[in-house]
Design a protein that fits this description.
heterodimer; A: 419 residues; Rossmann fold; 2 domains; 15 helices; 38% helix; 18% strand; B: 323 residues; alpha/beta; eight-stranded mixed sheet; four-stranded antiparallel sheet; 12 strands; binds iron/sulfur cluster
């Protein structure tokens, strides 16, 4: 294999979990935690996998390492397909591809001296010569900046940062080629984070280590990683070089992640924008573009002349009706048996819908739906809203388009928007 | 107007190896309607300091003075303290689960909190609970009030925890890393909420955090803690523009990727500067007694505890923006 060949190549990786219900534990559906992702990672390179919690990034890590067997797709490591490995090859793979977790305490037994815990992978992989073991442990501890003399101490005698170093020493016992680091610094103080990241950088340079860095923290990723893949609800929505992607996001989800980051300049406070709503249930992902239930720039229907921001508010109202989240009678009670007029205003206010939509047809459609809702006919209201206020974003899955520096899957990048 | 004034606060926790000093003489004040951030790393004493105000931590020995609205809290008996804790000073924690009970609906929890401090009828309390939920940004409060905590997302749970905290209309909200457990997409909204609450209700907020982004978004004034002592304090803009203490400077440099210092725990408290084992500028004087507070610059409230700002040294030798 040439130098350009990726060390790790993941194609269409899937991990679904059955949802079981009832006395017979029948499978009634699947949680599509990872739903067809592609990744490539070269030696010496750091690739970030970012997204909110619940987007599937940790499951992606575990299944590409075959710590959980994938539901579909292929993982190739150093040119060979991991899925076809026999036990011996799998063992070999496990030595060369290591996982580092957020909480180092998980790697250490409080009643065992840390040196022994660092040496533990050698038990599994049959390195029994005591001298060799001691030598290896001392060497790895030195690499991560821990005094080998302290190997006989217990975990509680170390600070959080030192424990993460110890966990790293343990991951490095077999000189791996690939390190999958799942939020390795998010539980640590700022300065400790910086030190651990700089240690990782040094080790990477020295040993040509490939690092898959899983994180929700954009600032850290910008500082530390070369390329990034942005994940939402089991899928990769954008990828490219870190600086270019975060400087000028091409996917609305990436943009939303960037916009939410707090400033470090008190003079600019209040500009960070939250992304409303929760990550939807991966057992029942939204149709079309999975981000359409939250996307701030979801594409408005062609029939109306309304902007994306307004359409977002109407769509939120529609989704709330669909989720049975509006209880007109309760609202009426709360407003002391207010008139229908007052209720209409209250509902519009709740979802931020303007008093009157600028497009006459759109306004008529919305008013009719609100009337049905107030008359207690939620079904009719929903049907009216779903017929009039629909978007290409929910009807069709966006294709992945090339961007100047990478790729993004969004209808806003379609040549001629397919209304 | 000063609402809370803390002086010479000390907190000790008993351990197998004898008492450990978590807070070692800390002073700060919070005015009505003001947001003050206690910033520090693990082991800086920031959580211990704010839990000591109303003595929520079991077994901690608290010493010094905590004056709240003219009353000395360290002298109060448990009963008085409990009522202050419920009525006037409310706490919000990192994990919203800490303040919410999983077996009661959110409405019941807010209603109970309201009725504990006010003899409102159940119906009145319920109506107030609904508007509180609305105040903390729950979109459909009347529909959500009967939900159980587990039926809500993490972000909504933290908002509900704030609603419970506000139920008795407190004067001071003590929030310990309230956004740390949340996704960054939710953080901005919660910070905005705290900003609004403080302004609209003239609520004083004491915010404990390690995250300088949270500080930049929210603080009026900042108190930087290290090893149980105050290193620096000042207005947020001054402090971000001209961090003066060597520790504060390292903190900001680390955000820019400079990896100085060590992962060792802070040197146990003694009489010198607690930062000296990590400090790039340390001189023998740093071990001689507590560095006293000096003006950091022309800003009257910007103070630093470091010998280099005293009369015997030339701060020019520290270099950087602060000189
Ligand atoms: S396809 Fe539509 S909903 Fe999805 S990200 Fe693009 S604009 Fe937003
Ligand atoms: S007093 Fe000394 S050790 Fe402490 S911060 Fe100042 S120079 Fe550094």
């Amino acid at each position: 294999m040439s130098d350009d060949d990726p060390l790790l190549s993941v194609r269409d990786l899937k991990k679904h979990y059955p949802v079981k219900r009832g006395f017979l534990r029948r499978t009634v559906g699947h949680v599509r935690a990872v739903d067809g992702i592609d990744l490539k990672l070269r030696r010496g390179e750091t690739l970030a996998l970012v997204g909110e919690s619940g987007c599937g990034k940790s499951t992606a890590a575990r299944s590409l390492l075959h710590l959980e067997s994938p539901t579909g797709g292929e993982v190739r490591f150093d040119g060979a397909s991991v899925g076809s490995f026999d036990d011996g090859e799998l063992n070999q793979f496990r030595r060369r591809a290591q996982l580092l977790l957020q909480n180092p305490d998980e790697a250490f037994n409080p009643r065992i001296p840390v040196g022994e815990s660092v040496a533990e992978p050698m038990d599994i992989h049959g390195v029994s010569d005591p001298e060799r073991r001691e030598e290896l442990v001392a060497d790895r501890l030195e690499r991560v900046g821990i005094d080998p003399e302290t190997a006989d101490r217990y975990p509680h005698e170390f600070s959080g940062g030192q424990k993460q170093r110890l966990a790293l020493a343990r991951a490095l016992v077999f000189d791996p080629d690939l390190l999958v680091a799942d939020e390795p610094t998010s539980a640590l103080d700022e300065r400790v984070q910086t030190r651990i990241l700089s240690l990782l950088e040094t080790l990477q340079d020295r040993h040509d280590l490939a690092i898959l860095f899983i994180s929700h923290d954009i600032r850290t990723v910008r500082r530390f990683c070369d390329r990034v893949a942005v994940m939402y609800l089991g899928e990769i929505v954008e990828r490219g070089p870190v600086e270019a992607v975060f400087e000028d996001p091409q996917h609305p989800y990436t943009q939303a992640l960037v916009d939410a980051v707090p400033t470090l300049d008190p003079g600019e406070r209040g500009e960070a924008k939250p992304l409303d709503g929760d990550v939807p249930d991966p057992a029942d992902p939204p149709s079309g573009c999975r981000f359409h239930t939250r996307c701030p720039v979801v594409i408005p229907p062609e029939a109306f002349d309304i902007d994306a921001e307004t359409f977002r508010t109407v769509l939120n109202l529609r989704l709330a009706v669909a989720a049975d989240d509006i209880d007109v009678e309760r609202l009426r009670g709360r407003l002391n048996d207010a008139s229908d007029e007052r209720l209409r205003t209250a509902l519009r206010e709740r979802y931020g819908v303007p008093d009157s939509l600028s497009d006459g047809d759109a306004e008529r459609a919305l008013s009719a739906a609100l009337d049905s809702l107030l008359a207690g006919d939620e079904e009719a209201a929903l049907e009216q809203l779903e017929t009039s206020f629909t978007t290409v974003c929910e009807r069709r899955e966006p294709e992945t388009h090339d961007t100047p520096v990478g790729s993004a899957a969004c209808h806003r990048r379609d040549e001629s928007p397919p209304f | 107007m000063t609402l809370l004034s803390v002086e010479g606060l000390r907190v000790e926790f008993p351990t197998d190896e004898g008492p450990v000093e978590a807070v070692d003489g800390v002073d700060f004040t919070v005015d009505r309607g003001e947001v003050v951030c206690l910033v520090g790393e693990t082991g800086s004493g920031k959580t211990a300091a704010c839990e000591a105000l109303t003595r929520i931590a079991d077994g901690a020995a608290v010493d010094g003075s905590v004056r709240f609205d003219g009353r000395e809290l360290t002298d109060c008996d448990d009963r008085t303290l409990r009522s202050v804790r419920g009525d006037r000073i409310a706490h919000v924690f990192q994990q919203p689960g800490t303040s919410l009970d999983p077996v009661y609906s959110v409405g019941d929890q807010i209603i109970e909190a309201i009725r504990l401090h006010d003899d409102a009828s159940r119906n009145e309390a319920r109506a107030r609970a609904v508007s509180l939920l609305e105040d903390v940004g729950i979109a459909a409060p009347a529909e959500r009030i009967d939900a159980y905590p587990h039926q809500l997302s993490g972000g909504m749970r933290q908002r509900v925890a704030i609603a419970v905290a506000l139920a008795a209309d407190p004067d001071l909200l003590v929030a310990d890393e309230p956004t740390t457990a949340l996704d960054v997409t939710l953080q901005a909204g919660l910070l905005e909420l705290l900003r609004e609450l403080s302004a609209e209700r003239d609520l004083a907020v004491l915010l404990v955090t390690h995250d300088l982004g949270v500080v930049a978004e929210l603080a009026d004034r900042v108190v930087v803690l290290y090893g149980g002592r105050v290193m620096e304090r000042g207005g947020v803009e001054t402090l971000f523009e001209r961090p003066a203490h060597p520790y504060t400077r390292l903190l900001f440099e680390s955000l820019r990727g400079t990896a100085d210092g060590s992962d060792d725990r802070p040197t146990p408290a003694d009489d010198g500067c607690p930062f000296r084992s990590e400090c790039p500028y340390a001189v023998p004087d740093c071990a001689e007694g507590r560095p006293s507070f000096h003006a950091a610059d022309d800003e009257p409230a910007h103070e630093v505890a470091c010998v280099f700002y005293g009369p015997d040294y030339d701060i020019g030798t520290l270099g950087g923006e602060g000189s």
